[in-house]
Amino acid sequence: MPGSRTRRNPWLFLTAVIIASLGSPLAGTAFAGSVVVPPPAYAPPDSATLETAVLSGGCFWGMQGVYEHVKGVVHAYAGYTGGSAATAAYEAVSTGLTGQAESVRIVFNPQILSYGEILHIYFAVATDPTELNYQGPDSGTQYRSEIWYGSAAQEETARRYIAQLTAAHVFPAPIVVRLAPAGAFYQAEIYHQDFLVRHPDSPYIVINDLPKVRALKTLFPALYRATPVTVLPLN
């Protein structure tokens, strides 16, 4: 993202470029398909017609782009959460000093897509849950992985799922995803919305995020939709 991308490790970044150029459907994901992430064992039914999930897991371009391709998602907004309205602006958040995290607010139909499935996609595709205060080439607390629960049911589902994945040693390093009650969510600037869909040729998107969409299609074929739902009309 312009003006704020801190390259944590140039050799890892170069490796990602090479892998992405090879066209692997799972390139760019946490462990390139070497880790099989099971679904949540605990997933209570939900009779509501609409629910909201808020997740942080690195750059919101990729997070939003992944969930816009998921069936049952009505809207996925890129934005900021964890801080105050006064600091909910890109240049301020990019300092890493505001408490804000780049996030995605997912409005979904739980009769089509469960909260558990949203979390399954989160851990399997959208983020690397073992990276603390960075994600891929981006470093800083604004790129932390955090689940912002909106209800007791969401909190219980997330806590049990993290415990399940931890007990099964699914990942080769500890899960560092935080849990916190959802606070105010501030939509990001217009130029950030639907960035993956509108700029598929951006080198950052090609290397870091389009592989996640391909992984979604490969790992979750029943939930994948080719035509994304977007915040802005697409010409």
**Secondary-structure arrangement, i.e. CATH architecture:** 2-Layer Sandwich
Q: Mean pLDDT, rounded to whole units?
A: 89
What share of residues are in beta strands? 15-25%
SSE order: HEHEHEHEEEHEEHH
- The low-confidence runs, each spanning 5 or more residues with pLDDT under 50, are 1-28
What is the number of beta strands? 8
Strand order of the largest sheet: 7-6-1-3-2-8
- What does the oligomeric state look like here? single chain
Treating each run of at least 4 consecutive H or I residues as one helix, how many helices?
7
Assign a percent range to the helix content: 25-40%
Question: Strands, helices and their partners?
Answer:
Blueprint: H1 10-21, E1 51-57, H2 60-67, E2 73-81, H3 90-93, E3 101-108, H4 115-126, E4 134-135, E5 138-139, E6 145-149, H5 152-167, E7 178-181, E8 185-187, H6 195-198, H7 203-219
Parallel strand pairs: 6-7
Antiparallel strand pairs: 1-3, 1-6, 2-3, 2-8, 4-5
